[in-house]
Structure prediction request, 148 residues.
Amino acid sequence: MNPYLFMATIFVCLFAVTGMYSSSAESTTAPYVSFVDITEGSSNSQFYIMIVETAIQSPVQQEAVVAIYVQDPDMTPVGVMLFKTTLLAGSTPIEFGFTIPNECAYNTMVHHPICSKDIPRTVYVNVFSDYIENGGVPITPEFVGENA
Prediction:
């Protein structure tokens, strides 16, 4: 057997296997948040419910910890949701409602009340491999959404 042909065959096989493993490792561990939608649910004179809808795309089924953090424009925390779930292969929809006090103040510049439900909110969605205290690391880039 020709030693050069043998070496070339080994090199091609190693290159093909290495490329297969590196591309499959990247695709199996790369979930991402596809969107965040913020809507107003039911309300009364004291409270209203802000509904946050999101979807996480994952190439494989895997365990994950999802964190949703909502804040006001002045960086006041409005709500935090943290839970462990199983991401499905494909799209995993998530919908969560935050109860927010409905406080109003009269604005002399525009001559009508401005209520807390009228203030824009910023929503941050993060996905981790596990809880931080268990060694979890982020598995998606942070996704930021705002309502106007």
